[in-house]
Amino acid sequence: MVVIKGTEYYHPKSKRYVDMPMTDILQMVGRAGRPQFESSGKAFIYTTVEKESFIKRFLYERFPVESSLLKQLSTHLNAEIQSGSLSHFNHCYE
After folding, report:
1. Where are the alpha helices (DSSP H) in 32-68?
2. Is 20 within 8 Å of 8 (Cβ atoms)?
3. What is the rounded distance in angstroms from the CA atom of residue 61 to the CA atom of residue 59?
4. How far is 85 from 94, CA to CA, in rounded Å?
5. In the chain, what are the domain boundaries?
6. Under a CB-based contact definition with an 8 Å cutoff, are residues 38 and 2 in contact?
7. Which end of the chain is more exposed for a tag (fewer CB within 10 A), N or C?
8. pLDDT under 70 in the chain at which residues?
9. Fold of 1-85
10. pTM of full prediction above 0.70
11. CB hemisphere CA count around 81 (13 angstroms)
């Protein structure tokens, strides 16, 4: 079980409370339940009413996968060829 007792933390440089990054919240929620010992886990998140729907959206909705690999693929392949880790390349078309 994971209990998150708030979704803000004090930021000393700005001298105010700021929102936790969603990646940090998702990381903590992911710690609920250990696959080798338990079949499920529970996470409790205490936050303000204003942030509730925003957090629920991140927890329950799927996110589109975004990749920029295609735009950079030739650069990566050229780097692998230059470094010597690729000795040959077979084209595969479907």
Report:
1. 49-60
2. yes
3. 6
4. 25
5. 1-85
6. no
7. C
8. 87-89, 91-94
9. Rossmann fold (3.40.50)
10. no
11. 8
